[in-house]
């Protein structure tokens, strides 16, 4: 995150003082979370919430449950949220949270107790005007429902707007589940248009088959793109003629959330998936999957980053030299936080929007953001990634200047 940030700051000519204001997170909270496991044993988990910036509005960002979660990762993810919200021009700052745990090896009861303990520990941080969490890797609607319930109990009233990505019955928004994958699709189509690629004659490979990957694959398929490969933690699966994405989703949902044993494609290695000669590669799993080690073998014409930070900074140059267009994470996956913003607005006005209105508005925001970043990349002669940072940093820095008060 910092390497791209430094580059964009140099191009923008930001002062040293502003550099440090933008670099250092506003708040970093680490908590110990004792939880009674089903066995009766008490295990203590470490949880984090980093608020990177609140200059544009309340901070916003998901909560990750994964064994690899650590403070450094959460700090980078929080800063990415600040830049992401600024790129799509929504009135939020950036934050991110997480707990180092393996939800795949925990029962629903254990996860619920962990979510409630985390929420209680973060009561001073969270709030509908302060800091608004949402789902990320390893969490979803169910966890957001428990979070809202625990927070509401502590306040003695129902506070829907404290969290987004909730189930619809609890005030969740129509379209939020598919929103990130939808935004990835809108960005991919906009980029394909620039490269004059016809979606109906194009192919894609998608890494990660969770919320973002599966929905992106399904929506790209709907727009004519042939999905030749998909993957998850269990492995990668290839079918030259195209994978039936709906069948793969149904299989996953009846197979403990995993694609393992999926019959509609042949198994390949995860590395093979990344180097397939497809038009569009969508990394939608986790960080640092495209690195110096494998960037040289990528044959896709474009990479559309569904995940946060899937490409290491060192790999950027190799990919740029190969002439591969990259639609960066802070632009490509911003559809999720955009519809989260709509959910928060609906909660606050106490009114529900139709799916048609939500999709129309989020598609417009994603297209406008893509066009602005594309124009900036032409103007500065830089990649879409650096252009997205320029757009975001410029907005946040100029807001600071207007607000003053240092
Ligand atoms: N859920 C959301 O609305 C948003 C998520 N993101 C980012 O998208 C990425 C994925 O998030 P979700 O889909 O929500 O998570 P998820 O937990 O729903 O799914 C993650 C998927 O990736 C797979 N996976 C994990 N590590 C892998 C690896 N090394 N190789 C192949 N597959 C692997 C898992 O098996 C699973 O299929 C994360 O980087 C997250 O930060 C970004 C914006 C919004
Ligand atoms: O929906 C949100 O508020 C945030 C989603 C998120 O964590 C992300 O965009 O990385």
TrEMBL record:
The active site is at residue 96. Substrate binds at residues 60, 84, 340. NAD(+) binds at residues 180, 211. Signal peptide: none annotated. It comes from the Bacteria. One of its GO terms (molecular function) is nucleotide binding. Residues 173-404 form the Glutamate/phenylalanine/leucine/valine/L-tryptophan dehydrogenase C-terminal domain. Keywords: NAD, Nucleotide-binding, Oxidoreductase. Gene3D superfamilies: Leucine Dehydrogenase, chain A, domain 1, NAD(P)-binding Rossmann-like Domain. The record marks 136 as: Important for catalysis. Belongs to the Glu/Leu/Phe/Val dehydrogenases family. This is Glutamate dehydrogenase. It comes from Salmonirosea aquatica.
């Amino acid at each position: 995150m910092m390497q791209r940030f430094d580059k964009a700051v140099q191009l923008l000519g930001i002062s040293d003082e502003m550099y440090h204001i933008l670099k250092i997170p506003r708040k970093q909270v680490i908590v110990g979370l004792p939880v009674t496991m089903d066995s009766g044993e008490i295990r203590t988990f470490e949880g984090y919430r980093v608020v990177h910036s609140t200059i544009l509005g309340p901070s916003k960002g998901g909560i990750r449950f994964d064994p690899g979660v650590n403070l450094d990762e959460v700090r980078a993810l929080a800063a990415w949220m600040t830049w992401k919200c600024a790129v799509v021009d929504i009135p939020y700052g950036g934050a991110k949270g997480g707990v180092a745990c393996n939800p795949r090896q925990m029962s629903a009861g254990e996860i619920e107790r962990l979510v409630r303990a985390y929420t209680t520990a973060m009561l001073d941080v969270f709030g509908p005007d302060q800091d608004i969490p949402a789902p990320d890797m390893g969490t979803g609607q169910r966890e957001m429902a428990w979070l809202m319930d625990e927070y509401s109990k502590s306040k003695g009233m129902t506070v829907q707007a404290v969290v987004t990505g909730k189930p619809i019955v609890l005030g969740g928004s129509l379209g939020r589940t598919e929103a990130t994958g939808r935004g990835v699709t809108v960005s991919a189509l906009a980029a394909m248009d620039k490269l004059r690629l016809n979606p109906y004659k194009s192919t894609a490979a998608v890494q990660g088959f969770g919320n973002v990957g599966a929905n992106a694959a399904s929506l790209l398929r709907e727009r004519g793109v042939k999905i030749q490969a998909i993957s998850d933690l269990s492995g990668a699966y290839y079918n030259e003629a195209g994978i039936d994405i709906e069948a793969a989703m149904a299989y996953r949902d009846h197979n403990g959330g995993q694609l393992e044993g999926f019959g509609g494609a042949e198994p390949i290695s995860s590395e093979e998936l990344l180097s397939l000669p497809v038009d569009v590669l969508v990394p939608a799993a986790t960080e640092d999957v495209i690195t110096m080690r494998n960037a040289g073998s990528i044959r896709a014409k474009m990479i559309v980053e569904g995940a946060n930070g899937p490409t290491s900074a060192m790999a950027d140059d190799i990919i740029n030299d190969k002439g591969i267009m990259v639609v960066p994470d802070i632009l490509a996956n911003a559809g999720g936080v955009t519809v989260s913003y709509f959910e928060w607005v609906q909660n606050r006005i106490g009114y529900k929007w139709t799916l048609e209105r939500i999709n129309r508005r989020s598609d417009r925001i994603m297209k406008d953001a893509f066009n602005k970043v594309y124009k900036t990349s032409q103007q500065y002669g830089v990649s879409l990634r650096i252009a997205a940072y320029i757009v975001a940093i410029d907005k946040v820095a100029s807001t600071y200047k207007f607000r003053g008060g240092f």
